[in-house]
Amino acid sequence: MAPQTEIPQTVEWQGKQVPVWSMQTINYALLLSQDPAEVEKVLNACLEEGYFYLDLESIDGGRMLRDQQETLELMKRFFAAPIELKNEYGLISSHLGYEPVGSRTGAFGAGTKDGYEMLKVSRDEIQRGSPKVPQPVKNNGDLRILENTIGSCNTITKVILSALSTGMNLTGAARFENTHRNDRPSTTTLSMMHYLPSEVTGNNKVGHQKHTDISSLTLLFSEQWGLQVRPPGTCGALEMGFVAPKPGCAFVHVGDSLRFASGMKMQSCIHRVVPFNPSEHRYSIAYFLRAEDDTMFVDSEGRYITAGQWHDEKFKAFTDPWQWQAMAPASMILGGMKEAGEDDPTGEPAQFAPNPIALQEELKKVSVQA
Ligand SMILES: O=C(O)CCC(=O)C(=O)O
Ligand SMILES: [Fe+2]
What we know:
nine-stranded mixed beta sheet
């Protein structure tokens, strides 16, 4: 057996010891063969925690890891290009195009902005003859890399979905795969993110806001620290803690759509990204496997709605100014997941807190517009 990489139980961040949450590691090669013990293990991870590591170091997973490395190189080239080229088409739709830094609320909520720029290429788009991607990556070599990566991620997430259907004894049309078919429209997308160093953006423009994902499953690759999750507890989620990057592994988590499709049995993972190292550029690749647009489920508000409608409403909530987010039901951003109390009783690190006078001014601005 390969030696286990030691993951610490806590890590120092902003002068405090913060938990590093441990989790199950699922073996992709075993899942591919529907190994009964591995199927049960992945199902339990989704029912109890809503996330796990996926070990891809095998003959099948190895090529997928190489696709990620190629995508990482592609992203670094893309994000180094001038803004006019990156933003050639802007954000064409919610799941396709470029979003500059500071487009959404940041890691520390009210009055802060996010610290990442993002390029999204949807699975539906890459399947088209002439995908609409900005000029820096619109060449045969880069399009091939994007197609390979989207194909790999799609296969991996479908293998997981299939194991979960088997684990839940779903048969025929009731299996989860049957609402995630490639030839039916969906908002499934590959999202490539570049977090700028907080030394460059300033402390009020950092990270990624706390949320659960719209998707059914999210497959996430990052070799760098910064991602935090809030594990579900018996009386609400526990404290935010880090996910340690693990070599050869992806981090997979359940999103709202699969929680809803499982009749609320699975946990949608509460997470955010914080600046870990103020001088570091952080890169992450997320594949959001989403249900076909016309899939029906009961959402966290008890409504019988389509996956498309849940996507559109939640995407709007993600991109709304924080003042409007604060007025929306909490079940939207957190997919109905419960939190026991404050993230941290001693509060967020002071250096990231927005100036209270500036906050009041911003609040006034939006109430005048509304
Ligand atoms: O950058 C990351 O590690 C996570 C990004 C994320 O949560 C998202 O795009 O939904
Ligand atoms: Fe997310």
